[in-house]
Amino acid sequence: VHKTRIHGNFGLSQILLTGKDIVLHDFGGNPAKAFSERRLKRSPLRDTAAMIRSIYYVAYEGFFTTTHVQNNEVEELLPFADFWAQYISGFFLKAYVDKVQGHRFVPESKEDFEMLLQTYLIENALQFLNTELLSSPRQAVIPLRILQTIVP
């Protein structure tokens, strides 16, 4: 596939709805990586995987920060976060595929597309799993759930 410059740190927090348009911001990439590495051309599916990860984080955020549900009940509700995240990710992915189909930066075969996307999802989830285990162990469940959807 054809490589191009990508956002490098893409997620829902980098999207601004202006009322009439959508603006993407913060194209600096992942600040944890060297500038020379951030400038490398890569597959746009890396940003697609990052957006799917972001959708999972949004789904779980409500359950982890709510004051309306007791902590012991949150565990029982987490399957609803999985359901919502998978559903919204499916909508996002379908719209993405419909828009980019036939372009050189996505594989032509469905199997190659899925393999590449799953590879980037695994890479992204493992990176965030490491981060969460060090800083916020309760949220480590989010990248684990992403991995669980790929590797049952």
SSE diagram, text form:
Layout: E1 15-17, E2 22-24, H1 35-38, H2 45-65, H3 71-100, H4 110-135, H5 141-150
Antiparallel strand pairs: 1-2
Helix pairs in contact: 2-3, 2-4, 4-5
The proportion of residues forming helix, as a percent range, comes to 55-70%
**Span of the ends, CA to CA:** 28 Å
Return the structural class: mainly alpha
Low-confidence stretches: none
* Share of β-strand residues: under 5%
Order of helices and strands: EEHHHHH
> What assembly state would you assign to the polypeptide chains in this entry?
single chain
| Rg estimate, integer Å | 16 Å
Brief summary:
With 152 residues, the protein is mostly helical. 60% of the residues lie in helices and 4% in strands.
Describe the fold and architecture:
- The chain has 152 residues and is mainly alpha-helical.
- It is built from 5 helices and 2 strands, in the order E-E-H-H-H-H-H.
- The protein has helices spanning 35-38, 45-65, 71-100, 110-135, 141-150; strands at 15-17, 22-24.
- The chain has a two-stranded antiparallel ribbon.
- A hairpin with a 4-residue loop joins strand 1 and strand 2.
- Helix 2 (45-65) packs antiparallel against helix 3 (71-100), helix 2 crosses helix 4 (110-135) and helix 4 runs antiparallel to helix 5.
- The radius of gyration is 16 Å and the shape is globular.
